[in-house]
């Protein structure tokens, strides 16, 4: 089972983050508009506009190489937890408005479905990260 997690979760995350980055990149002006229509300040929307796409691409690249897969899993966990927290706040009606700024196939998901999707990927990522960390500790002993 551990081998399955180690061999399948990183490529799944590569697909997820590559898809997310390129769907934002190919619809950049719409992504910009969606971010600036969120409930957070304009400066944060500006930051996210230029941070998220490179962060998702770099994360996908980190997950492609054995030497950097652990860092990729750590960054994946942070990105997934951050967006999962945002979705949770949306579902808790924390924000006065919450238009979706996700692209591609995920636009058809409702907020609850999106939360489940993110929770599944977060659980897979944390499980894979734990397996990789335990293996690294064993290898150093």
Automatic annotation (TrEMBL):
Q: Which residues form the Methylamine utilisation protein MauE domain?
A: 4-129
Q: Which GO terms describe its biological process?
A: methylamine metabolic process
Bilayer-crossing regions: 47-65, 72-95, 115-133
**Pfam families documented for this protein:** MauE
Indicate where this protein resides in the cell. Membrane
Membrane topology type, per the record?
Multi-pass membrane protein
The protein's superkingdom reads Bacteria
The reply to whether Methyltransferase figures as a keyword in the UniProt entry is no
Main localisation, per the record?
membrane
- Entry's Gene Ontology cellular component terms: membrane
Please provide the record's keywords in A-Z order: Membrane, Transmembrane, Transmembrane helix
Q: Identify this protein by name.
A: Methylamine utilisation protein MauE domain-containing protein
Species the sequence originates in: Pedobacter roseus
